[in-house]
Design goal:
This protein has 274 residues and is α/β, with parallel strands linked by helices. The protein is built from 8 helices and 13 strands. The chain has one domain: Rossmann fold (3-Layer(aba) Sandwich). The strands form 3 sheets. The chain has an 8-stranded mixed beta sheet, sandwiched between helices. The chain is globular and about 55 Å long. The two termini are 32 Å apart.
């Protein structure tokens, strides 16, 4: 975009090399060393994005990799619940220390900063986006191979902040099979393409129910559209997550790290091969 045509609305601009852009890249805390950063996104809420983020973190950790998760879904934080992490984070004059799970996975969420985890965060978008930036810059995560960001749904202030100011190495999009949601997936795909963020692939949640007797996969929502969307945009459909009481129970009990079955093998390997 030429300077004479620039409206100086940098937050909504995806133009690289624009001389009018004043957006500064954020740097992690000096005591934080990050290998690869992966954002997990969805076009709408309720499709299991946090479930996928939690499983990816747990499965990467089981393979011997050091992992940290930043919960960027400030108004709907649930990462600490999935890992059974309670209480408030502590810090010193150098910064805030990330919370640790039972298996030494590091995480930070706004819930770790509130007096009561049930207190709502009644802030407008720019304040929330600023907080997300601080969760990245002011928190000491230590040295981790993989840094996962659980994004809020949609294409608002926080995704813009993350994609413009944090060096993201790849994005995994989470979707469910319904046709409406598949249309919304296209918005998420297009957002990543406009922001020039590498798309690693798609994970379809609630894809099927598996019969406990014969093992047949029953697609209760009918033929899915997510595979069509993935093919249309030339990105792989990495994994299909079933509707499984094991997962919902583990999340409710804060025991996502205790799930023995591997649910996201392709997505996990995709991240490792980056």
């Amino acid at each position: 975009m030429s300077e004479e045509n620039c409206d100086h609305n940098c937050d909504a601009c995806g133009e690289e090399g624009c001389k009018s852009r004043k957006i500064e890249k954020l740097k992690p805390h000096p005591e934080t060393k990050i290998g690869k950063t992966i954002a997990i996104v969805s076009g709408k809420g309720g499709v299991g994005k946090t479930m996928v983020t939690s499983l990816l973190g747990a499965e990467l950790s089981k393979k011997g990799h050091s992992v940290a998760i930043m919960d960027a879904d400030v108004t709907g934080p649930s990462i600490p619940q999935a890992f059974g992490v309670k209480g408030q984070a502590v810090g010193d004059e150098n910064g805030i220390f990330a919370m640790k799970t039972k298996h030494d996975l590091r995480l930070m969420s706004v819930n770790c900063l509130l007096d009561n985890a049930s207190d709502p965060v009644l802030w407008r978008g720019p304040l929330i986006a600023n907080l997300v930036g601080q969760l990245y810059t002011n928190v000491i995560y230590g040295e981790v191979e993989y840094f996962l960001i659980d994004m809020p749904p949609g294409t608002g202030d926080v995704p813009l902040t993350v994609f413009q100011q944090i060096p993201v190495d790849g994005v995994i999009i989470v979707a469910s099979p319904q046709e409406l949601v598949s249309m919304i997936v296209e918005k998420a795909v297009n957002m990543c393409k406009m922001m020039k963020i590498p798309l690693l692939g798609l994970v379809e949640n609630m894809a099927y129910v598996q019969c406990p007797h014969c093992g047949e996969k029953i697609k209760i929502y009918g033929d899915d559209k997510s595979a069509e969307v993935a093919k249309r945009y030339g990105i792989p459909l990495l994994d299909e997550l079933p509707i499984d009481p094991i997962l919902s129970s583990a999340t409710d009990k804060g025991e996502i790290e205790e799930v023995e079955k591997t649910f996201l093998p392709k997505a996990t390997e995709k991240i490792i091969k980056l």
